[in-house]
Design brief:
The chain is of the alpha+beta class. It has four helices and nine strands.
Length: 165
């Protein structure tokens, strides 16, 4: 669960040295040569602004009769229903201002799909079609505020195909 906001990137050691040098020159320059101080100050401000990366668009959930995929988080973040063998929920203590719930779907072929809780609402009705899906474990997981993991379903290869029926 991430909101559209700019993320601050920490400067590298070289960038930090240049920033510090520019700031020192700006302070020194203001007392001796005002134009030098002003120029260095502008460079420092531009360097600080450059450390802020543009906002990353939030991921989106792709659900179909074939499987589930999270788009916008790189390649390979998906599982086919026919390959689904386990569903879990991982919670972190990072909330409420950071994504703190993730649905983890595991395929028999080694594929995995991590679905952030902020986009997982349409996923639950699909998963509840699985035989033996543990709704109580979901409720317990959603109440967790600590770093924890919860298994909500485990089956054999091919059992996940029940979702498409």
């Amino acid at each position: 669960m991430e909101k559209l906001s700019s993320k601050r990137r920490w400067p590298t050691a070289g960038e930090a040295v240049i920033d510090a040098l520019g700031l020192a020159l700006a302070i020194y320059g203001c007392s001796t040569r005002p134009w030098l101080g002003a120029t260095c100050l502008v460079i420092v401000v531009l360097a600080i602004v450059a450390h802020t990366s543009p906002p990353r668009p939030p991921p989106t959930l792709g659900l179909s009769s074939e499987g589930v995929r999270v788009l916008g988080w790189g390649e390979g973040n998906g599982v086919r229903w026919a390959e689904l063998v386990e569903v879990g929920i991982v919670t972190t203590s990072g909330g409420p201002f950071a994504e703190d719930v993730f649905w983890i779907l595991v395929g028999a072929d080694g594929g995995r799909c991590a679905v952030p809780g902020s986009i997982a609402e349409p996923l639950l009705p699909w998963l509840q079609r699985l035989p033996g899906f543990d709704n109580h474990a979901v409720v317990v997981a959603m109440g967790s505020t600590e770093d924890a993991s919860f298994r909500v379903w485990q089956g054999e290869r091919g059992k996940g195909a029940a979702i498409t029926r």
